[in-house]
Specification:
Blueprint (H helix, E strand, L loop, with lengths): L6 E4 L5 H17 L1 H9 L4 H6 L2 H5 L7 H14 L3 E7 L7 E6 H17 L7 E6 L2 H4 L1 H9 L4 E6 L4 H6 L8 E4 L1 H14 L10 E4 L6 H9 L4 E8 L3 E6 L6 E3 L4 E7 L6 E7 L10 E10 L11 E7 L3 E4 L2 E4 H8 L8 E6 L3 E8 L6 H11 L1 H8 L4 E8 L12 E3 L7
Helix pairs in contact: 1-2, 6-8, 12-13
Length: 423
């Protein structure tokens, strides 16, 4: 666990029912997971304290959950949880892929939760919903199940292919009213979407829900003005699943605080800080004070939509990572795949026109090892390997400077030159 020294504040105000759920979660974590028991011992918290003391105060005495302990927790989850039916993985920003094991109980809760969130967007029985991704059966299967429970007219898990024309040729006849996809996929499809799916051209598309990445203001304006759709942001992560969604007032993301307890870890003046998540209902792999790596700013006051859940604006990432077609690619993980020991120079540059190009810039002395370094990087990043071998993105190495001329302290480690990520 990582020692917490910054000021921590709750996002929203938990109800008594939420506090009771937190106590049950703390007791369950203490009983079943050695990783958490060690954290409780360090904080001087015993089983009797969990029964008698304020669970919110006890939670505040625990350290944050770091990446190493998250990996240990995943191993324990597999060993102590009955009826695991699914696993979600991502390359993530650290060297080891992140895993989340899902029980039948948690899958049922997630389906119900997703349905509640999509209902906030106004999705209902009259809609035809297309979930568009590079691997939608793996990534968005839970979305389609939740949508079906809402009673939507039709729902599709639709594969986005490397060929833009081929990607949407089969989708147009389905005439979806709602599109759920990743911003970088939406941006690639914008010309076809505006030419074939706009209401003025006979299409019935009315809503776009974006997931997995931030959406640029320019792309949002294009969707709203040229395509004539209402845009909603979905917020979640591999480690947590769904967390919140944008409502029809379009003034921030509502965090569903009856599903998770949220805190903001500030590192200076003001309300901005890193979001911490504590599970209230999950049982297969509950999280206590898990730092997502997202920098957020709570929104003050009530929302005009009437929802009582707190709202935030997601400002960016606290780590050095980029998102490519929904896959989070972290500098640290790439660096560890290239080098056995720290100290050498490396830069990650992302560009994109027809499709994204990831370039790892290394000292020229490593060029003879190009093939083995490439194999090591792709072996440690399964999401990146899928995108590269599937033809979705391009990936290369550049050897443009020598060790003597490179100063790793002055080199900007991640450079994202894609239009939607500049400015």
């Amino acid at each position: 666990m990582t020692t917490l020294t910054a000021d921590i504040r709750l996002v929203g105000h938990p109800s008594q029912a939420d506090v009771d759920c937190l106590r049950e979660t703390l007791l369950d974590c203490h009983r079943r997971f050695g990783t958490y028991r060690r954290g409780f011992e360090v904080a001087g918290i015993g089983a009797e304290d969990l029964l008698a003391s304020d669970p919110v105060e006890l939670l505040g005495r625990l350290d944050t959950l770091n990446a190493e302990d998250y990996s240990l927790l995943a191993d324990e989850s597999l060993a102590v949880t009955d009826a695991i039916i699914d696993m979600e993985t991502s390359s993530g920003t650290t060297a080891r892929p992140k895993r989340r094991f899902i029980s039948a109980h948690d899958a049922s809760l997630e389906e119900e939760f997703l349905a509640d969130m999509f209902a906030v967007c106004g999705i209902g029985p009259s809609d035809r919903v297309a979930c568009l991704d590079v691997d939608p059966l793996a990534v968005m299967a839970s979305f389609t199940a939740a949508l079906e429970s809402l009673g939507v007219r039709e729902t599709y898990a639709y594969t986005f292919s490397p060929s833009l024309g081929g990607s949407l040729a089969g989708l147009s006849p389905l005439d979806p009213t709602v599109l759920i996809s990743v911003p970088s996929i939406i941006e690639r499809c914008l010309p076809v979407l505006t030419s074939e799916f706009a209401k003025g051209r006979g299409g019935h598309l009315s809503k776009v829900v974006y997931v997995g990445e931030s959406l640029s203001a320019k792309t949002r304006r294009t969707l709203e003005t040229k395509l004539g759709v209402e845009v909603f942001g979905y917020y979640g992560a591999t480690e947590t699943s769904a967390l919140g969604i944008e409502c029809a007032a379009h003034d921030g993301i509502h965090l569903f605080s009856d599903r998770n307890l949220f805190e903001v870890q500030s590192r200076g003046e003001g309300a901005t800080g890193e979001l911490l998540v504590t599970s209230l209902r999950l049982r297969s792999m509950p999280l206590l004070r898990y730092a997502l790596g997202d920098v957020i700013e709570p929104k003050p006051g009530p929302c005009e939509c009437g929802l009582d859940y707190p709202r935030i604006e997601v400002l960016g990432r606290s780590d050095e990572s980029v998102s490519v077609l929904g896959a989070s690619i972290g500098y640290e993980a790439l660096y560890d795949a290239v080098y056995d020991v720290p100290g050498e120079s490396m830069q990650l540059v992302v560009t994109g026109e027809a499709r994204d190009l990831l370039t790892i810039v290394l000292p020229e002395e490593l060029e003879p090892s190009d093939s083995s370094v490439r194999d090591a990087v792709l072996a440690g990043q399964p999401d990146l390997e899928f995108l590269v071998t599937g033809g979705y993105v391009d990936f290369e190495f550049s050897y443009t400077y020598g060790r003597e001329s490179a100063d790793s302290r002055k080199l900007k480690r991640v450079v994202d030159l894609r239009e939607s990520h500049v400015g």
